[in-house]
Design goal:
The chain is of the alpha+beta class. The protein has two domains: 1-33; 78-216, Porin, CATH 2.40.160. It is built from two helices and eight strands, in the order H-H-E-E-E-E-E-E-E-E. It has helices at 2-33, 43-61; strands at 78-88, 91-105, 108-121, 127-140, 147-160, 167-179, 182-195, 202-216. Strand 5 (147-160) and strand 6 (167-179) form a beta hairpin. It is elongated and about 155 Å long.
Length: 217
């Protein structure tokens, strides 16, 4: 009788132990697989992940700075308009000059243009007009301020616009300053006069101090 009772107790204990072992194994598998998206990271790994997420959210929330880089290259086209006065020995003149060209570098301008020059003879008050055609070269000294010194030269040739039939070499040399888009310069203006009208050859010249005001296009 005692042997039967002992065998029954042993059988019940083994069944209970097996059930507990299966329950523990099932919990271990659930923890490893993490079907519910539960993180299985270690405490150190969890803190590192949280710090990374916080830094990412902070960088996204912070205002972003947009940097604009201005090109140092020169614009494709440029030009000048000038009004000038030249004081000469015999003939004073007023000049309207226009030039159009390009900036071959941020400080060097190369172009060409034409103008209308009105000459006024002091003794007789006779007036005549000429059309100068010229090449224009201007070099600007780069500065950090709005005031920029420059040197300008305009060599060319003038044609007579009136019955005088005059023509000849034209030259304008000046130096001045540019403030934003406005210019002022002092220099020297020279003009040759050649004429063969009515078979009478004539040659003369006029040169003097020049004062010009202009605007950059």
């Amino acid at each position: 009788m005692m042997e039967k009772i002992f065998s029954a107790l042993l059988t019940i204990g083994s069944i209970t132990a097996g059930a507990q072992a299966q329950n523990f194994e099932g919990r271990a598998l659930q923890t490893t697989a993490s079907p519910q998206g539960v993180s299985a990271l270690l405490p150190s790994e969890t803190s590192t992940s949280e710090a990374r997420d916080y830094a990412l959210s902070f960088s996204e929330a912070a205002p972003r700075r947009h940097y604009q880089y201005r090109s140092t290259s020169a614009s494709a086209y440029a030009g000048t308009l000038e009004l000038g006065f030249v004081s000469a020995d015999r003939n004073g003149r007023i000049e309207f000059l226009g030039s159009f060209g390009t900036l071959v570098s941020p400080t060097i301008y190369l172009g060409g243009g034409l103008g209308f020059d009105g000459y006024f003879s002091r003794p007789h008050r006779d007036a005549f007009w000429m059309l100068p055609l010229f090449v224009n070269l201007r070099a600007t000294l780069p500065t950090s301020s709005v005031v920029k010194p420059f040197f300008d030269i305009k060599p060319g040739y003038s044609l007579g616009l009136t019955h005088s039939g005059l023509h000849g070499l034209y030259l304008s040399i000046s130096g001045g300053i540019a403030i934003n888009r406005f210019t002022m310069s002092l220099g020297y203006g020279y003009q040759e006069f050649n004429s063969s009208k009515y078979f009478d050859k004539y040659w003369g010249s006029s040169g003097g101090l020049s004062l010009k005001f202009g605007v950059l296009l």
